Amino acid sequence: MAPSNEKTYTWDEVKKHSTAEDCWIVVGNETNGGPKVYDVSKYLESHPGGSDVIEDVAGEDADESFEDMGHSEEARNIMRKYLVGTLFLTEEEKAAMEAKKAKAKSSGGMNIMMLIALIAIAIGVYTQIIAKQEKGAAESDQDV
Predict the structure, then answer these.
(1) pLDDT tens, 25-79?
(2) Are 84 and 24 in contact (CB under 8 A)?
(3) CATH number of the domain at 7-89, please?
(4) Measured distance CA(130)–CA(94) in Å, rounded
(5) 52 in helix, strand or coil?
(6) What is the pTM of this model?
(7) From CA 1, how far away is CA 3, in angstroms rounded?
(8) What does the H/E/C string look like for 68-105?
């Protein structure tokens, strides 16, 4: 539960802050203390990954993007400076967020399979290149 002195915002209020000059994001979910609202406008230029990655989720739920990046404890501590409140969710909004997260979680396996396939292809291409280089080197050694 949020402290009583913490302001509560609705999605409509958060969505109004969706520009680089006025950039709010929502990070958090029911499993980690609930969705929190952050005003990261002054942090955009300092973000190590560039301002674009935050601007892409301005005024939106950035929890999945934030967690997928595997942010460090230091990054989480930095976030605390920009906390402006908690997000109030209606029962319908809670259900929609949970459904969205469940869908994202179930489709995550496909991304891993695609990554494995791409790595296998890269290894195959690399092996072919090395084999051609070795063959070329062996042929030039015979010419000497």
Answers:
(1) 999 877 777 899 999 999 999 999 899 999 999 999 998 888 888 888 999 999 9
(2) yes
(3) 3.10.120.10
(4) 53
(5) helix
(6) 0.65
(7) 7
(8) HCCCCHHHHHHHHCCEEEEECCCHHHHHHHHHHHHHHH
